[in-house]
Design goal:
Blueprint (H helix, E strand, L loop, with lengths): L7 E4 L61 E7 L17 E9 L3 E2 L13 E11 L20 E11 L4 E2 L3 E7 L5 E2 L10 E8 L7 E7 L18 E7 L9 E7 L15 E2 L2 E10 L4 E3 L1 H4 L5 E3 L1 E3 L4 E9 L6 E9 L1
Antiparallel strand pairs: 1-12, 2-13, 2-17, 3-10, 3-15, 4-14, 5-6, 5-13, 6-7, 6-8, 8-9, 10-11, 11-12, 15-16, 15-20, 18-19, 19-20
GO molecular function, one term: glutamic-type endopeptidase activity
Pfam family, one: Peptidase_A4
Protein name: Concanavalin A-like lectin/glucanase domain-containing protein
Length: 343
């Protein structure tokens, strides 16, 4: 099915070596800026164009200790295997994920202090954090109503990119975006304001069988310690962004995903960006709902052997770069990802 155009988009108030990628130094005369003098930095929200044996050995499919392959994606995902059909419910084996939710506090970012990419004060570092349906892993054997569907090959997601550019004195404004990958490029929300320390909530939904479009809602609640409403319990967003698609290609709708990813810069699509030294990222309020009424939150998401963990590994940048684990329990539980450099 041919993807349609977007229907609505609204919002309210370096050098390289043969071994690894160094932080990319931008030519200052080619960078456009907005009225606040923030550069228009963007990540390419897709894998590096060279994924096997990148020229010069930047990433190799069998690089690392014990031939460990590279992985540019950390975080967690919940694989959903629909139950078998029964005489009373003959179609429940066709159940699919309908929506995924999650919150994250935008972290601060700096240049790494250890590892091969550390200390380039004239370079740029970045990281991307997103919540979505599919797009996390291709390692599970999924039984879906779509034969031979690979959940890694497409996804509906929303996230925030963070950047650090030494030539501008450090941290830049976060960029909040959404994407139906790979049918559409990532789209930013108009006039959506966000800063490090703000709490964002992402809600990503798709149509029946993953192929009739979908929607995304992003809410910014400001700092977590800000007032939560009149009764102290209800969160009041200070900014909201929404996006609706129609007649999009199908998704597997088999994974709920909460991810940190090392995407390439648009200016260098062949390589992952140098991953910044971000403060801890915590995914909270994690939830997954299915079309036939399944609703997974709290321990149903974080429970033992259900949630699958991912970590970023790139030998060229120093080995393991981000590791994640569950923290807390019940509705207050979540997944915390930390920046590391472990050979």
């Amino acid at each position: 099915m041919k993807p349609s155009t977007l229907l609505t988009l609204t919002a309210t108030a370096a050098s390289t070596t043969s071994a690894f990628t160094l932080p990319f130094k931008f030519r200052r005369d080619t960078v456009s800026t907005d009225a606040s003098n923030n550069p228009n930095r963007r990540l390419l929200h897709s894998p590096p164009t060279n994924t096997v044996g990148i020229a010069g050995g930047h990433i190799k499919a069998t690089s690392g200790i014990n031939n460990r392959p590279p992985s540019l994606r950390a975080g967690a995902y919940l694989p959903y295997h629909p139950p078998a059909s029964t005489p009373d419910q003959p179609t429940q084996n066709q159940d699919m994920i309908q929506s995924v939710t999650g919150t994250v506090v935008i972290p601060s970012i700096n240049m790494p202090v250890s590892g091969p990419t550390a200390g380039n004060s004239a370079g740029e570092y970045s990281a991307s954090i997103w919540v979505g349906i599919d797009g996390a892993s291709a390692t599970d054997n999924f039984i879906t109503s779509i034969p031979n569907c690979n959940p890694l090959s497409q996804s509906l997601r929303a996230g925030v990119d963070i950047f650090w550019d030494g030539t501008l004195g450090g941290q830049q404004t976060p960029y909040v975006w959404t994407q139906w990958y790979p049918a559409e490029h990532a789209k930013g929300f108009l006039d959506f304001k966000a800063s490090p320390g703000d709490e964002l909530r992402f809600t990503v939904s798709t149509g029946p069988h993953g192929n009739s479009g979908g929607s995304v809602m992003v809410e910014n609640f400001g700092p977590p310690q800000s007032p939560k409403g009149v009764d102290g319990k209800v969160k009041i967003p200070i900014a909201t962004g929404s996006l609706i698609w129609k007649d999009m290609p199908g998704l597997c709708s088999a994974q709920g995903s909460w991810i940190i990813e090392d995407f390439p810069l648009q200016e260098r699509p062949e390589l992952p960006s140098a991953l910044g030294n971000f403060t801890d990222v915590r995914f909270g309020e994690m939830g997954v709902a299915t079309w036939l009424g399944g609703n997974f939150t709290g321990e149903e998401v974080l429970g033992k052997d259900k949630l699958k963990m991912l970590e970023i590994y790139d030998q060229g940048q120093g080995g393991t770069l981000a590791k994640c684990k569950t923290e807390g329990g019940g509705e207050k539980g979540g997944v915390v990802c930390r920046r590391v450099v472990e050979a």
